[in-house]
Amino acid sequence: MNPLLTIEGLRVEFGPADAPLVAVDGAALSIGPGEIVGLIGESGSGKSLTCRSVMRLVPRPGRVAAGHIEFDGRDVLAMTPQQLRDFRAHEAGMIYQDPFSSLNPVFRVRDQLSETLRANLGMGKAQARTHAVALLDGVGIPDPERRALSYPHELSGGMRQRVMIALATASQPRLLLADEPTTALDVTTQAQILSLLTRLREERGMSVLLVSHDFGVIAQVCDRVAVMYGGHVVETGPIGALYDNAQHPYTHALLDSVPRLESAGRATRRPGIAGVPPELNEVLPGCVFKPRCRYAQPSCESVSMALQPVAPGHETACPVRPLAAADGRPAARAGAQT
Amino acid sequence: MSEPAPLLTVDGVVKEFGLRRTAAERVQRAQPEAHRAVDDVSFSLRRGEILGLAGGSGSGKTTLARCLVRLVEPDAGTIDLDGADVRAASGRDLRELRRRMQMVFQDPYASLNPRMTVGTALHEAGRVHQRPGSENGEQFVREALERVHLSASLAKRRPRELSGGQRQRVAVARALAVGPEVLIADEAVSALDVSVQAQLLNLFLDLRDDLGVAILFVAHQLAVIAEVADRVAVMHRGRLVEVGETAAVFGDPQDDYTKALLAAHPHPRLARVAS
Fold first, then answer.
1. Exposed e or buried b for every residue in A301-320, given b needs 16+ CB within 10 A?
2. Chain-chain contact of B247 with A266 (C-beta, under 8 angstroms)
3. pLDDT in tens, B205-215
4. What is the ipTM of this complex?
5. CB < 8 Å to A258, chain B
6. Phi and psi dihedrals of A314, rounded to 5?
7. Residue B43 belongs to a domain with what CATH number?
8. pLDDT of amino acid B14
9. Domains along chain A?
């Protein structure tokens, strides 16, 4: 099956061209039709920029300096403004962390939806209004006729995010880019939004790129996941493989840092990850994770960050692979240290 | 385990916020019903214990936390810190009570003065409360930083030169610099990345074990509370719906809201949501 979206060697830079600050360096990712792919990383890892690059929405003065983004056989980075407009209108939709700042506060929800429908799908006024209500119904908003007349401030955070999803998926795009869509929401609302995304995937075969810093969110809905650190994708693979058989020391350490409900009643001390992520102006030779890696070796300064296969569909950027067990069985994860 | 006397006892605390009248209410000259942000809340905090306060957004966790140090004035109820009546205190007495109950907020960038170096900020807290040792600024600051496992060389930096985790440690160091008995951490780790969050949680456990500080740990993430809290209180619409040992509450929740919160918690294991 051909992937719907392929990102190769993506490089996003800020600052002067002769001494650029590299925020994303050689990121690679692919999403198949109907697949939900998670992009996880800590703040500053470049996950949002990678997501925005797909829509060509990297905020200025940032720029995509190198790389290739292919959507269904077409080169996104080479699109003309007209093609880009079509692409954004019909092929890909995007939702953000804060739905309130993405909605126009002075227009009713219905009018914002029908504006999109009229502009992108060429609907008439009456038809667009009826369809807007149907869209709200489709994302699980109760009493959609009444809610359609609300202004954004009259809706709760979860409702606003549903409206955003309705807007982004109004023209039945094949790809939805979701940049931390549930970070600002309560856990109960978060669960509802995540199940809505899963439902849209099942009903329409829509692909989703879900950016998040929360492993719990990723685990609930994603088929595959890519882990980013310091602008690089350091590991990618099926969600189960990453959990049980993380090969990159960063993925492993990150998973071990995640607080768990099972710790209830037993005060738990997790090691976390010592040190701080690299600054944009720090150019590290070899592996970017080396300064914080507990398995670092001198040779790590000269390795490439290219992904290497571990198992079918599972790739890691760590050539040392200290976590691979000698007998070929997955290395046991160090449990919570009490 | 013998039952130690509670350090902080909260009984029947209520906080109401008046709402603006809607157009209809203005026409009818009716008063809208006040919103009860904190509704008859009672609990106690023991010495050297971490009590987690969980709940969704808008459940009143923060208002309750602020009521305890009277950053928000409660409307009813009693707050008793080791025999001292917090609600009746004023002036010098209130200042002393606030020294004994310190708060740490979610966003350390907003709670630290951007123009003060870390050292100045820490020293100021000690001087204001005339802490022993605060005459010797340099040593006072060094000890305060060491308590939160930060290098003394950070004293000359300003908040913007620190990482998020370091900043939050400085905020904790400043709270500890005045020798509090109770620390109220209001979403103190919520804005941090998990790798940094883990280190901050360890710090809170160290503070409880080494200094014997009692901590009211407000957080919306249940797993974070599970990692550190001895007991947990769950808040919903201003009321405490469940209080108990963390293992008991999370293992066998009795209240429907607690059950719903636990069920919605994103599980890092492969628990798929139903579509």
1. eebebebeebeeebbbbbeb
2. yes
3. 999 999 999 99
4. 0.80
5. 194, 223, 268
6. -115, 120
7. 3.40.50.300
8. 94
9. 5-229 (3.40.50.300), 232-316 (no CATH)
Cα separation of A239 and B266, whole Å? 15
Q: Residue B218's pLDDT is what?
A: 94
How many Cβ pairs within 8 Å bridge chains A and B?
146
Inter-chain contact A261–B201, Cβ cutoff 8 Å?
no
User: In percent, how much of chain B has pLDDT > 90?
Assistant: 63
Distance CA(B266)–CA(A218), nearest Å, equals 9
Check residue B18 and give its pLDDT: 79
Place of tokens 């929740």: B253
For a pLDDT cut of 90, what percent of chain A falls above it?
Answer: 46
Note the Cα A118 to chain centre separation in Å. 29
Q: Do residues B243 and B216 lie in contact, with contact meaning Cβ atoms separated by under 8 Å?
A: no
Q: Give the sign of the dihedral formed by CA A129, CA A134, CA A138, CA A142.
A: positive
Between positions 293 and 322 of A, the ones with CB within 8 A of B are none
* Residues contacting B234, CB < 8 A, separation 6+: B54, B55, B240, B241, B242, B243, B249, B255, B257, B258, B261
pLDDT at A79 over 90: yes
pLDDT at B168 over 70: yes
Domain assignment present for B195: yes
Residue B33 domain boundaries: 6-264
Say how many domains are in chain B.
Answer: 1
Contact predicate B243/A170, CB 8 Å: no
How far is the alpha carbon of A85 from chain B, nearest alpha carbon, in Å? Answer: 32
Q: Do A271 and B273 touch (CB under 8 A)?
A: no
